[in-house]
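The pair is set out directly below:
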Amino acid sequence: MEQKAEMPWRENASRGSRLRERGRGMRAESGRTVWVTGASSGLGMYTAQALREAGWIVIAGARSFSEELRDADGMHRFPLDVTDEDSIARFCERAGAFSPRVDALVQCAAILTLGSCEETTAAEFRRVMETNFLGMVRMNQRVLPLMRKQGSGKIVLFSSINGLLGIPFQNAYTASKHAIEGYAEGLQMEVRPFGIQVCLVEPGDHRGGSQRTRLRAEAMGADSPYAGSYKKATDRIHHDESHGSDPGKLGQKVARMLGRSRLPFRKRIASPDQHLAVLLHGILPPRFNEMILSGYYLSGRSQ
Protein backbone atom coordinates (compact mmCIF):
# COMPACT_ATOMS: atom_id res chain seq x y z
CA MET A 1 0.00 0.00 0.00
CA GLU A 2 2.86 2.41 0.46
CA GLN A 3 3.95 4.49 -2.46
CA LYS A 4 7.42 4.80 -3.84
CA ALA A 5 7.61 8.55 -4.27
CA GLU A 6 9.76 10.31 -6.83
CA MET A 7 11.33 13.71 -7.41
CA PRO A 8 14.46 14.84 -9.32
CA TRP A 9 17.80 14.66 -7.52
CA ARG A 10 19.24 17.73 -9.13
CA GLU A 11 18.26 20.99 -7.45
CA ASN A 12 19.68 24.45 -8.06
CA ALA A 13 23.43 24.84 -7.91
CA SER A 14 23.53 27.17 -4.93
CA ARG A 15 21.58 24.76 -2.73
CA GLY A 16 23.86 21.91 -3.86
CA SER A 17 26.94 23.93 -2.92
CA ARG A 18 25.56 24.69 0.52
CA LEU A 19 24.81 21.03 1.13
CA ARG A 20 28.28 19.98 0.00
CA GLU A 21 29.93 22.53 2.28
CA ARG A 22 27.74 21.45 5.18
CA GLY A 23 28.59 17.82 4.37
CA ARG A 24 32.30 18.39 4.75
CA GLY A 25 31.85 19.83 8.22
CA MET A 26 29.45 17.14 9.32
CA ARG A 27 31.76 14.38 8.17
CA ALA A 28 34.45 15.64 10.51
CA GLU A 29 31.96 16.23 13.31
CA SER A 30 29.98 12.98 13.39
CA GLY A 31 31.53 10.44 11.04
CA ARG A 32 28.36 8.33 11.08
CA THR A 33 28.00 6.45 7.82
CA VAL A 34 24.76 5.02 6.44
CA TRP A 35 24.19 3.00 3.28
CA VAL A 36 20.77 3.46 1.66
CA THR A 37 19.47 1.16 -1.08
CA GLY A 38 16.73 2.12 -3.51
CA ALA A 39 17.75 5.76 -3.03
CA SER A 40 17.03 7.18 -6.49
CA SER A 41 13.30 7.67 -5.93
CA GLY A 42 10.46 7.18 -3.54
CA LEU A 43 10.76 6.69 0.18
CA GLY A 44 14.40 5.64 -0.23
CA MET A 45 15.25 8.99 -1.79
CA TYR A 46 13.44 11.01 0.86
CA THR A 47 15.03 8.95 3.63
CA ALA A 48 18.51 9.43 2.15
CA GLN A 49 17.95 13.18 1.93
CA ALA A 50 16.70 13.37 5.51
CA LEU A 51 19.70 11.42 6.77
CA ARG A 52 22.02 13.71 4.84
CA GLU A 53 20.39 16.75 6.41
CA ALA A 54 20.71 15.13 9.85
CA GLY A 55 24.48 14.96 9.42
CA TRP A 56 25.05 11.40 8.29
CA ILE A 57 27.57 10.49 5.61
CA VAL A 58 25.14 8.97 3.12
CA ILE A 59 26.32 6.39 0.60
CA ALA A 60 23.32 5.84 -1.63
CA GLY A 61 22.76 3.03 -4.10
CA ALA A 62 20.29 2.51 -6.91
CA ARG A 63 20.12 0.82 -10.30
CA SER A 64 19.57 4.14 -12.06
CA PHE A 65 22.59 5.93 -10.61
CA SER A 66 25.40 6.82 -12.95
CA GLU A 67 28.94 7.86 -12.15
CA GLU A 68 28.14 11.44 -13.20
CA LEU A 69 25.74 11.87 -10.26
CA ARG A 70 28.17 10.42 -7.76
CA ASP A 71 28.65 13.39 -5.41
CA ALA A 72 25.72 15.66 -6.26
CA ASP A 73 24.04 17.53 -3.40
CA GLY A 74 26.63 16.42 -0.85
CA MET A 75 25.63 12.77 -1.13
CA HIS A 76 27.74 9.90 -2.44
CA ARG A 77 25.99 7.72 -5.02
CA PHE A 78 27.03 4.48 -6.63
CA PRO A 79 25.19 2.18 -9.03
CA LEU A 80 23.58 -0.75 -7.21
CA ASP A 81 21.36 -3.57 -8.42
CA VAL A 82 20.36 -5.62 -5.37
CA THR A 83 19.46 -8.60 -7.59
CA ASP A 84 23.03 -8.84 -8.93
CA GLU A 85 25.83 -10.19 -6.71
CA ASP A 86 28.53 -8.53 -8.84
CA SER A 87 26.81 -5.16 -8.61
CA ILE A 88 26.50 -5.53 -4.83
CA ALA A 89 30.18 -6.46 -4.54
CA ARG A 90 31.22 -3.38 -6.56
CA PHE A 91 29.00 -1.12 -4.48
CA CYS A 92 30.40 -2.49 -1.21
CA GLU A 93 33.97 -2.12 -2.45
CA ARG A 94 33.43 1.50 -3.47
CA ALA A 95 31.53 2.38 -0.30
CA GLY A 96 34.15 0.66 1.86
CA ALA A 97 36.94 2.60 0.19
CA PHE A 98 35.14 5.85 0.93
CA SER A 99 34.31 5.05 4.56
CA PRO A 100 35.40 1.86 6.36
CA ARG A 101 32.47 1.98 8.82
CA VAL A 102 28.85 1.05 8.20
CA ASP A 103 26.98 2.46 11.16
CA ALA A 104 23.60 1.84 9.54
CA LEU A 105 22.10 0.12 6.53
CA VAL A 106 18.67 1.30 5.33
CA GLN A 107 17.10 -1.00 2.76
CA CYS A 108 14.38 0.59 0.62
CA ALA A 109 14.80 -1.01 -2.82
CA ALA A 110 11.44 -2.36 -3.99
CA ILE A 111 9.22 -2.88 -7.01
CA LEU A 112 5.52 -3.64 -7.27
CA THR A 113 3.60 -5.79 -9.76
CA LEU A 114 -0.18 -5.50 -9.91
CA GLY A 115 -2.11 -8.56 -11.05
CA SER A 116 -4.28 -11.46 -10.00
CA CYS A 117 -2.77 -14.45 -8.21
CA GLU A 118 -3.89 -16.67 -11.08
CA GLU A 119 -2.45 -14.59 -13.91
CA THR A 120 0.73 -13.21 -12.36
CA THR A 121 3.38 -15.61 -13.61
CA ALA A 122 5.95 -17.33 -11.45
CA ALA A 123 8.61 -15.25 -13.21
CA GLU A 124 6.77 -12.06 -12.27
CA PHE A 125 6.48 -13.20 -8.66
CA ARG A 126 10.17 -14.11 -8.71
CA ARG A 127 11.20 -10.68 -10.01
CA VAL A 128 9.45 -8.97 -7.10
CA MET A 129 10.87 -11.37 -4.52
CA GLU A 130 14.39 -11.03 -5.96
CA THR A 131 14.30 -7.27 -5.47
CA ASN A 132 12.15 -6.72 -2.41
CA PHE A 133 13.20 -9.65 -0.23
CA LEU A 134 16.27 -11.45 -1.55
CA GLY A 135 17.88 -8.10 -2.33
CA MET A 136 17.74 -7.34 1.39
CA VAL A 137 19.14 -10.76 2.23
CA ARG A 138 22.10 -10.23 -0.12
CA MET A 139 22.91 -6.78 1.26
CA ASN A 140 22.66 -7.96 4.86
CA GLN A 141 25.03 -10.84 4.17
CA ARG A 142 27.61 -8.32 2.92
CA VAL A 143 27.15 -5.85 5.78
CA LEU A 144 26.80 -8.13 8.80
CA PRO A 145 30.47 -9.22 8.90
CA LEU A 146 31.48 -5.53 8.96
CA MET A 147 29.03 -4.70 11.73
CA ARG A 148 30.07 -7.72 13.79
CA LYS A 149 33.69 -6.60 13.51
CA GLN A 150 32.67 -3.10 14.64
CA GLY A 151 30.61 -4.51 17.49
CA SER A 152 27.66 -2.35 16.51
CA GLY A 153 25.33 -1.43 13.69
CA LYS A 154 21.73 -0.64 12.79
CA ILE A 155 19.75 -2.32 10.00
CA VAL A 156 16.48 -0.77 8.87
CA LEU A 157 14.32 -2.88 6.57
CA PHE A 158 11.47 -1.19 4.74
CA SER A 159 8.47 -3.47 4.99
CA SER A 160 4.93 -2.15 4.56
CA ILE A 161 1.43 -2.20 5.96
CA ASN A 162 1.12 -4.94 3.33
CA GLY A 163 3.59 -6.97 5.36
CA LEU A 164 0.85 -7.23 7.97
CA LEU A 165 -2.27 -7.67 5.85
CA GLY A 166 -3.02 -8.50 2.23
CA ILE A 167 -5.07 -6.66 -0.36
CA PRO A 168 -6.33 -7.92 -3.75
CA PHE A 169 -4.18 -7.68 -6.90
CA GLN A 170 -1.02 -6.63 -5.08
CA ASN A 171 -0.09 -10.18 -4.17
CA ALA A 172 3.56 -10.47 -5.20
CA TYR A 173 4.41 -7.29 -3.33
CA THR A 174 2.40 -8.42 -0.30
CA ALA A 175 4.16 -11.80 -0.28
CA SER A 176 7.58 -10.12 -0.39
CA LYS A 177 6.73 -7.83 2.52
CA HIS A 178 5.37 -10.71 4.61
CA ALA A 179 8.66 -12.51 3.95
CA ILE A 180 10.59 -9.49 5.25
CA GLU A 181 8.54 -9.42 8.46
CA GLY A 182 9.32 -13.03 9.35
CA TYR A 183 12.95 -12.78 8.26
CA ALA A 184 13.54 -9.70 10.42
CA GLU A 185 12.31 -11.42 13.58
CA GLY A 186 14.83 -14.22 13.25
CA LEU A 187 17.58 -11.83 12.14
CA GLN A 188 17.23 -9.67 15.25
CA MET A 189 17.56 -12.64 17.58
CA GLU A 190 20.70 -13.82 15.79
CA VAL A 191 22.56 -10.51 15.62
CA ARG A 192 21.66 -8.79 18.88
CA PRO A 193 24.55 -10.49 20.76
CA PHE A 194 26.92 -8.67 18.37
CA GLY A 195 25.49 -5.24 19.19
CA ILE A 196 23.45 -5.04 15.98
CA GLN A 197 19.91 -3.69 16.03
CA VAL A 198 17.17 -4.40 13.47
CA CYS A 199 14.12 -2.27 12.75
CA LEU A 200 11.15 -2.85 10.44
CA VAL A 201 9.68 0.34 8.98
CA GLU A 202 6.06 -0.27 7.94
CA PRO A 203 4.83 2.62 5.78
CA GLY A 204 1.27 3.17 4.73
CA ASP A 205 0.34 5.07 1.58
CA HIS A 206 2.64 7.93 0.63
CA ARG A 207 2.17 10.16 -2.35
CA GLY A 208 4.36 11.11 -5.31
CA GLY A 209 5.43 7.66 -6.47
CA SER A 210 7.72 6.51 -9.26
CA GLN A 211 6.04 4.65 -12.09
CA ARG A 212 9.35 2.96 -12.96
CA THR A 213 8.92 0.62 -10.01
CA ARG A 214 5.21 -0.04 -10.61
CA LEU A 215 4.59 -2.91 -13.01
CA ARG A 216 1.52 -4.73 -14.26
CA ALA A 217 1.29 -8.45 -14.86
CA GLU A 218 1.36 -9.05 -18.60
CA ALA A 219 -1.80 -11.16 -18.55
CA MET A 220 -3.91 -8.43 -16.96
CA GLY A 221 -5.83 -7.22 -20.02
CA ALA A 222 -9.42 -6.42 -20.90
CA ASP A 223 -10.13 -10.10 -21.55
CA SER A 224 -9.03 -11.20 -18.05
CA PRO A 225 -11.80 -12.80 -15.98
CA TYR A 226 -10.64 -10.49 -13.18
CA ALA A 227 -10.67 -7.30 -15.30
CA GLY A 228 -13.60 -5.63 -13.52
CA SER A 229 -12.36 -6.33 -10.01
CA TYR A 230 -8.80 -5.48 -11.01
CA LYS A 231 -9.83 -2.03 -12.23
CA LYS A 232 -11.80 -1.29 -9.06
CA ALA A 233 -8.93 -2.36 -6.82
CA THR A 234 -6.18 -0.58 -8.73
CA ASP A 235 -8.26 2.61 -8.99
CA ARG A 236 -8.56 2.54 -5.20
CA ILE A 237 -4.84 1.82 -4.77
CA HIS A 238 -3.86 4.69 -7.08
CA HIS A 239 -6.27 7.06 -5.33
CA ASP A 240 -4.94 6.21 -1.87
CA GLU A 241 -1.34 6.58 -2.96
CA SER A 242 -1.89 9.90 -4.73
CA HIS A 243 -3.65 11.23 -1.63
CA GLY A 244 -1.24 9.63 0.81
CA SER A 245 1.05 11.03 3.48
CA ASP A 246 4.06 13.30 2.97
CA PRO A 247 7.13 11.16 2.10
CA GLY A 248 9.45 13.88 3.36
CA LYS A 249 8.03 13.56 6.86
CA LEU A 250 8.56 9.80 6.74
CA GLY A 251 12.22 10.34 5.86
CA GLN A 252 12.61 12.74 8.77
CA LYS A 253 11.05 10.24 11.19
CA VAL A 254 13.46 7.53 10.06
CA ALA A 255 16.41 9.91 10.44
CA ARG A 256 15.36 10.86 13.97
CA MET A 257 14.88 7.21 14.86
CA LEU A 258 18.36 6.29 13.61
CA GLY A 259 19.84 9.13 15.65
CA ARG A 260 18.71 7.50 18.88
CA SER A 261 20.75 4.91 20.73
CA ARG A 262 18.02 2.25 20.61
CA LEU A 263 15.89 1.31 17.63
CA PRO A 264 12.32 0.07 18.00
CA PHE A 265 11.87 -3.29 16.33
CA ARG A 266 8.81 -1.98 14.46
CA LYS A 267 8.03 1.56 13.36
CA ARG A 268 4.69 1.96 11.58
CA ILE A 269 4.35 5.24 9.69
CA ALA A 270 0.80 5.42 8.39
CA SER A 271 -2.49 7.26 8.57
CA PRO A 272 -4.88 6.66 11.52
CA ASP A 273 -7.24 4.55 9.40
CA GLN A 274 -4.37 2.30 8.31
CA HIS A 275 -3.24 1.88 11.92
CA LEU A 276 -6.83 0.89 12.70
CA ALA A 277 -6.91 -1.59 9.80
CA VAL A 278 -3.83 -3.36 11.18
CA LEU A 279 -5.30 -3.41 14.68
CA LEU A 280 -8.60 -4.89 13.47
CA HIS A 281 -6.76 -7.44 11.33
CA GLY A 282 -5.20 -8.85 14.47
CA ILE A 283 -8.46 -8.94 16.40
CA LEU A 284 -11.29 -9.83 14.03
CA PRO A 285 -11.96 -13.28 12.57
CA PRO A 286 -10.58 -13.77 9.03
CA ARG A 287 -14.03 -13.64 7.41
CA PHE A 288 -14.72 -10.20 8.89
CA ASN A 289 -11.37 -8.90 7.69
CA GLU A 290 -12.10 -10.21 4.23
CA MET A 291 -15.46 -8.45 4.19
CA ILE A 292 -13.93 -5.15 5.26
CA LEU A 293 -11.03 -5.19 2.81
CA SER A 294 -13.09 -6.57 -0.09
CA GLY A 295 -15.69 -3.89 0.49
CA TYR A 296 -13.03 -1.20 0.48
CA TYR A 297 -11.07 -2.33 -2.58
CA LEU A 298 -13.63 -4.13 -4.73
CA SER A 299 -16.89 -2.25 -4.24
CA GLY A 300 -16.10 0.38 -6.86
CA ARG A 301 -17.67 3.07 -4.71
CA SER A 302 -16.76 6.66 -5.42
CA GLN A 303 -13.32 7.69 -4.15
About this structure: Residues 1-29 have pLDDT under 50 and may be disordered. The chain has one domain: 13-298. Strands lie at 33-37, 57-62, 76-79, 104-107, 112-114, 153-158, 196-203, 214-216, 266-269. The first strand starts at residue 33 and ends at 37.
